[in-house]
Amino acid sequence: MTVDTVFWLLSMTKAFTATACMQLVEQGRINLDDEASKYLPELAASQVLEGFAADGTPRLRPAKRAITVRHLLTHTSGYTYSIWSEALTRYEQVTGMPDIATCKNAAFTAPLEFDPGERWEYGISMDWVGKLVEAVSDQALEVYFREKIFGPLGMKDSGFLIGSAQKKRVATFHSRRADGGLEPGPFAMPQRPEFFMGGGGAFSTPRDYMTFLQALLNGGAVGGVRILRPETVALMMQNQIGELNVHEMRSAHPAYSRSFDQFPGQPHKWGLSFDINTEPGPNGRSAGSVSWAGLLNCYFWIDPVKHVTGALFTQVLPFYDEWVVALYGAFERELYAGLA
Prior knowledge:
Pfam families: Beta-lactamase. By secondary structure, the protein is an alpha+beta fold. 28% of the residues lie in helices and 15% in strands.
C-alpha cells in the first residue's frame, strides 16, 4: 500500500456527487427545495412499497408528496439500499429488478419505502443526484467530475473509468473469513456501465482523496484552487434533516455489511451529504464533525473545529469489519494525541 494505490471508493463517491450538485446550486442552476422532477421528470411518478400480496406481488401506491433535491441529498427521499433492506431485497427477487451495484438503469425503477421527508434511510438517492447533475450540466458525470473537481485539484488518479496505469496499482480485494483470516478475490466496478454511479462507482487514491478532503476542510479551496464557497461547505456540514435522526443500519446481507451505527447511543444528524456527530466522538473528533465511509471499509472524517481531516483505506468485505474499525479508532486517537 502507498499513497498512490488505487482503491474503489464505493460510497465515498457520494462526497464528490454532493460537491458537484452544490456547485450547480451556487450557480443558481439548482434549488435545494425544488421538486427533483423539475430536473428529472421520471421522479414525478414515485411509488411507495407498502408490502407484498399473498402471491408475492408488490403492493405499491403513489407517494403522498414530491421528492425534493434536499430529500435526495439527505437520504430522506424514501429510496433505500437492498444491503440494509429486507423489503427491497424481496422486491428485487420478486421483480427481477437489478441492484444498483450493477450500474444498470433498470435499478432506478426501485420504489420508495416511505413517503419523502418522513424519515432517514440510506439508499440510492445520491445516484439520482448524479443523474440530476448530468441533466443540469449536460455532461456525463465522468466528464463533469474531471473538469470541475478532479482536474482543478490535480486528482489525476480519480474517476469512474479506470485506465491501464491505475489498474496496475489497484489494491487487492479481500473477504474476511470466519476464522478471522482474509481471502483474496476479484473486485472491480463495471467499466462499461449504463450510467455513472454517483452513489458509489468511483475510484481514487489516498493522495487524491486527501486533497479533496483538505479542500472541504479549508472551506472549499486548497493549493489556491477553489471548488466551493466557504458558506456552501458550511451548509453541507450542518444538520439538514431537522428533528429526524440517523440510526443504526441493520444488515439484510451479512456477507456485504454488518449492522452498524457510527455513534451508538449518541444522536447524529445528516448534512449534504455527511453523517454529523452532535457530541464529541469517542476517539477525539469534535462535536459537529462530519464523516462517512465506503462499503469496502474505507473511512474519512472532517473536524472543522480542530481543523483536522483523516481517512483510512482498505478493500475488505463485509463492511464495518471489526478489525478495521478498531484500527480506524486507534488511528484517530493517535492523530489527536499528536495534536495535544
